[in-house]
Structure formats: structure tokens, C-alpha cells
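Re: export button greyed out
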Amino acid sequence: MSFDRRVFEAKGYLVVPGFVDLHTHLREPGFEDSETIETGRRAALRGGFTTICAMPNTEPAVDSPGLLKELIGRGHDVGGARVLFVAAITRGRKGRELADMVELAQAGAVAFSDDGSPVEDARLFRSALEYARASGRPIIEHAQDLALSAKGVMHEGSVSARLGLPGMPAAAEEAAVARDLALARLAGARLHLTHLSTAGSVELVRHAKADGESVTCDVTPHHLAMTDEWVAGSRAFAWEGEDRAPRGVPYDSSTKVNPPLRTRADVRALWAGLEDRTVDAIATDHAPHSSVKKDVEFDQAAFGISGLESALALVLGGVRAGWAPLETVIDALTTGPARALGIDRPEGDWVVIDRDAEWMPRADELASKGKNTPLIGRTLIGRVVATVVAGEVRYEGVVGVAEAISRR
Amino acid sequence: MLDTDDWSLEEIETVLDQTRAMVEILSRPIRRAPALRGRTVILFFAEVSTRTRVSFELAAKALSADVVNITATGSSVEKGESLLDTVRTLQALGGDVVVMRHSSSGAPYFVAQRTESAVINAGDGWHAHPTQGLLDAYTLRDALGELGGKRVVIVGDILHSRVARSDINTLVPLGARVTLSGPPTLVPAAWRCGQLPAGVTYEPLLDRALDGADAVIALRLQRERQESGLLPSLREYSRVWGLSLDRVGRMRPGAPVMHPGPMNEGIEIDAAVAHGSRSLIETQVTNGVAVRMALLYLLAGASTPSGVPAAAAPLEERG
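Workaround output, generated via the alternate export path:
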């Protein structure tokens, strides 16, 4: 299989293939007050994502071919981004018995994941990997040792010590990554590790790839741009000085996310991983929540950042700072995730980008129902001006752009 | 008044000076001044606390404020009312000052952002207990004189202690050096691994930490810590990190012993130490009222004829 990537300038805009998001929460069915397939698909377009992979942690969980087919039907309506569905690894995502993985794959599951609930039982996870191999789909694993992360609500380090918040050590992720890599090797299966957040995790994957393992991984825009200082009120991107950046309020639950925002050294390591292709993809882990779940005490708040619409601006910030070349991050948003899924990048999907546009996310202007992002009110640079899906302009942020594109 | 972590030395000194004036009022035959007459202080305690609540109540009443109590027991908080709802109620009630205690670190920031009242943090989760830090600083300075060059040991469950964090934030700017001591599982990992706040060191063994120290503050040990696997046994804890008469003798002669209360006598502190000649534990309680009076006065007593000896101009209301 081969993928092409075309980058060309048009009227000062950048036109690149549509983005593929390996990790999106659409909340339907069960949590429609946080997001629906429809609002999520619209938010995706505004972020330049033409294909998104919906995670199965809905209520009920997507663990049966019947529900999967029903959802695929709902995701096929006109408008919005293309939706692919990830099915659960275990029944009810409870980690006790496998879902009917072969049938789910036949019904259209693009991958398997119990995202949010790592499969703790190593023997069961081995079986899942064997089944994934047989069904020809990858396992997307949220690597986290739950006993180690325990009741943590942020990264364990000097900031959590200062704030008096229970921490999740980096080792909670790294221990799980090491286990998952060993089991994937045993099963000979395709393992995709999602939202890696620590320097140690990237290093483990680097070694596994050097050994020829068929492992892939992604990182999120927020882990590429924000540090644990954001929980203490910082709003400085990892590549900015603290003194010049605006400040927020400490304990803002919009900075609460799992895996947690890590240290600046971790952020640097994620970028280094992108640059040497240890990291295959940038995935949003778009996790919209209604205000009921977020407008509460920090330790009581739900984990997650609403990320589809600001993803591009965050990664372009790192590019501007010289932390990775533009083509590397565009690859990680397009061909990288397609390759991780083993799908062809859809033809006719394009996104038009204004790299210099300054804008400010506002709660009432986000298409997503999830307003839970610490970027509300923060000036960002770089914005999607139009998104084309299957040759059709489905989002147009600036009038007249569509004509300019369709003429070419 | 959510945390002292961003206070300047001058601000800390202002409160400590004002506290001295309040101690004077408390020593009068009639312990009352009209400074906050007509002002309403709401005591919102979403976590059970008798000592701190009563201390604030006495402080507010000594300044003639009206005091309203909202406590966890018997209020809608227990029935599952959200903090947001409670804040809306507090806002509608319109108190001048909300004094709050909450089990979640950071909860006072949540409330302060959503109400126009001044908010005083009376303890939030593991994060901060600023009035305890200030009263400990006041008590230590009264006992030791200037704190510059003095070394204060804080021993016990540092990880879960808002008192330890606030003591550090107050004592270090005043010039003291702080030595933390306690079981490795009860000290934040970053602090054990060298990323300590300025002016602070970590010495696991209490005997060594106490050698030549100028004062010691013992923290309360929650019995749950053993059940959750963070401690092998309370017996071992008490033998290694408990304050015995022998052990406090390693400090400089007469060096004081403090404890924020309530104490587990026989675990973190022996009765002979708690009630011995070095103990300032009861003085802490008295000074606690004075510190809280000082803060209430500085936050809410701005424009009223006070009857309070003016040690300083009132502080700007803090965000």
C-alpha cells in the first residue's frame, strides 16, 4: 500500500490531505448531552479532520455487531466528517471476557479498544491480541497501570506536590507500555498505543520499532503543547516563556485529562518522537464533556479535553517554534494514522489552512458540545479555512475559499 | 485569601503585626471590638472540623460580625448538592466574607471565581491551610524571635498535609529553613527526589532531622494510611517518627514542640511531650483566634471605625 502526500500553497493558504483522527469520543449513544455523532462530525470538519475514529466507550458500549451496524448507519448521513467505528475489546468494556471480535470486524469495526479502561488481565489481553491478528485489525490500547495511577488526577511531580493533588506517575504509563509491547510480540499482533505522554513511553516504542516490532503509536495535540503547570494556572505553551503568556486560574478542571499533562521534558520527547518517526500519528483524544461533569471540584471532575477544533493550531505552534518540520506533523495527521489503521487515505479529502490566522476559541463558537478546553479565550495561530470530504466542500470558514479550491 | 504561596514577605509581616494587635484585644477583660459590626461572615464547612470553625467563629464574633454557619452535617451538601449550587446560594446570601473548608484541593479557587464575597481558605484537601501557617509562624516568632537562620522540623504525613504546605509557604519567606521528615511513602515523590521547594530539605530519619533543630511541628497521622498500605504499622511509625521526650532532647535546649491538632497521643506524639514544658500546642490554639481576627479585619474591616489598634492598613481584597 502506498500513500501520497501533496502539499501546495494556494493564495497564501496551505492545502493538504484531510486529517485522520484515530481517537475521538462522540458520546453517542448514552451521553448525548456531551456530544453526538452529528456535532462531533461538524467539530471534526472545523478542525480539518475528514475521517475520525469513534471510541466505543458509550452507553451501551459498542461491543455487539448489531449496535455497531446501527451506528455506522447513523454516521453515514450527509455532512460532517467520515466516521469509522472502533469496537470494544471486551464485553461491556469490563475486561472480563472478549467481545465477538471476528464478527465485529466483519460488521465494520476499524480497530478494537477498551479506551479509558486498559485491559488489566494480561492473559485476556494476550487473547485479544491473538484475535485482533486473526481479524486483521489493530488493537488501540490506552496504556495505564491502574494500581499505580490509583486515584491520581494529574501528573505526579513537583506541581502535584505543590498543589496537593494526588498524582499519576509516568511509570504508570510506562509499565503498561512495556507489558503491552511484550504481549504484542508474543501474539505477533498489530498494537497501536494511543495518547502516549511520557519520554519513557516514547523510548520504549523506539526500541520496539528498532527490534522490528509492528507497533505504532500516537500522541495528542494537548500533550504536545501543554505541561502540568497548566493545572497550576499557567497558559504558556511548552515552547513559550512563562512570563509572556497569559495566566489562568489554578485547579481549572479543563486541564484535567488522562493521561495527564506532563512535564516540559516529556513534551520535548514527544516532539523528538514525531521527528524520528517513532510517533506515527497525532490523534486528538477529543473528549467532550457537558458542564455538569466539568463545573465541579477538580478531583471530582471528568477527565478529558475537547480537542478537535484546536488541534491544528496547537501543533502548528510547535512547528513555528522549530520543534518539528511542517511536513512531519502533516504526515502525522494524515498518512501516519491511515497507515496505523491499515486503511487507504481517502481520495478527495482536503483541508485548506491559513497558517497565520489569529483566532480565539470561544465556548459559543465551538461546534462541539464539549466546551471543556483550557484554550477558551487564549489566542491561537493557524486555522482551518475549508474542509473537503470526497470532493465536496463540507466546511467553509472563510467565504470564497471554496471557489478558489474548486477552480484548481 | 486562598493560599499564601504568592504572598510577599511584606504581606505576611502585615498579618503577623496585625495579629499582635488582636492578641492584645483578646487579653482585655471584654474581648470584643466593633470593627466588623454590620458585616456578615459565612462559615462554609463542607468537611467536618470543630477546631478551625470555632476559632473562626470566635474571631468573627470578637470583631462583632454576624456569623452564619453552613456545615456539612445537616446541610444540603450532605444531600448531594453540587458545589456550584452552594456557591449560587452563598452569592445570593451576600456575605461579606466566606470562610470555607473543603475536602477537595483547590475548591476555594472554584468558589472565589464565582462569588463576589471575599473568600478565606480554612483548609482545602491536601493543598493549603493558610491561617494555620500564619498562626504557626506567629507562634514560632513569639517563642524564638526572628526566624532568620532558624531551622524548623516538620514531621509526619507531609504528602496529605495542607498544614505542611502552608507552614513551608509562610516560614520560608520569614527566613526559616524547613526540614521535612517522615516515611518515604508519606512525602511527595518529587520532594524526595531533589525537586524540593526553596529553603526546604528532606531527612527521612527523625533523629537526624532533630539534631540541633530550633523547633518541631508534628503532623496528625491518619490511621487510614496504614490500611491503604502506605505504612507497615502504626507501632513502627510511632517508634521511628513519634515525638518522645528523648527525641525532642536532640533539639536545641528549650526548642518548642507544636502540633496543629487534633493529636493522636501515643502515635505521633507522646503525652509527656504534648503536655510538657516545650509544648506550644495550647498557645497555637489561642493565637489561631488572633490570626483569624487579623485576617477578617484586614479583608473586611476596611472602612469601619474599628476600635482596633491600627497596626497596618487593610489589605487589598485578594483574587
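Residues 8-406 of chain A form a domain with the TIM Barrel fold (CATH 3.20.20.140). The button fix ships in the next patch.
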